[in-house]
Amino acid sequence: MAIILKSRPELETMRRAGTVLRDLFEELGSKVIRPGVSTGELDAYIEKYIRDRGCRPSFKNLYGFPASACISVNDEVVHGIPGKRVLQEGDVVKVDVGAALGGLHADAARSFPVGKVDPEAAKLLEVTQAALEAGLAQAKVGNRVSDISSAVQTVAEKAGYSVVRQYVGHGVGRKLHEDPQVPNYVYPGLRDVRLRAGMTLAIEPMLNVGSFEVVVAQDKWTVRTADGKLSANFEDTVAVTEAGPYILTR
Fold it and tell me: How many domains does the chain fold into?
């Protein structure tokens, strides 16, 4: 396992990329995401927004992914390919996106209600956000990865939701995916790394209303809940510093 610690100048560059993502999500939530918009239109907006601000979309062509953002709707958990699908009133749409600047990446995701959603969806979004906050708070020098994992899992399961097992958070920075892995649950054999100043982590709870089990669609990218029930995902990039967690995508 090769964990790459970041210097202060590198953290500042990642923060600048992260600020682009923060502002992008503000625009998406307030102006862009609404019934009648297609996921392909969202992706085009996202790519232009990132490039216009001097960054590069981290996901574009990564591992062969064809778009700038993973856009997943309702029972789609992650890695949805944007296209012709049109958002409907009551949908939940998840936007996962990275921005690269100066050879460094920031990674973040948000789940958005499309118009008015039902109470079950609203609660899932609220709890998933709370699980992320709990995980971020544990990104402190001297803690371990399991402290993050346990915090996320506790919030999720206390509210009656399951935590996706097959996909996890990760280190991020010089590459979009770096060591260590940051699962959203604790399990025997977890590589329980101690957190050090300069580590940068993408913490990303994925919570399901039903079972944690997922399946991959025929497009070989889109991940769905196996039982067809709703899923939500929130993610931020955080730096571990001597002064505490420093969230680079806010």
Answer: 1
Domain of residue 103: give its range. Answer: 8-247
Tens of pLDDT, residue by residue over 83-125, are 999 999 999 999 999 999 999 999 999 999 999 999 999 999 9
Q: Is the pTM of this model over 0.85?
A: yes
Looking at this protein, which amino acid is placed at residue 180?
P
SS3 8: helix
What CATH number has the domain bearing residue 163? 3.90.230.10
- φ, ψ (nearest 5 deg) of residue 17: -65, -40
Distance CA 35, CA 8 (A): 42
In a domain, 3, yes or no: no
Q: 8-27 and 39-52 helices cross at what angle (nearest 10)?
A: 140
Q: Does residue 2 fall inside a structural domain?
A: no
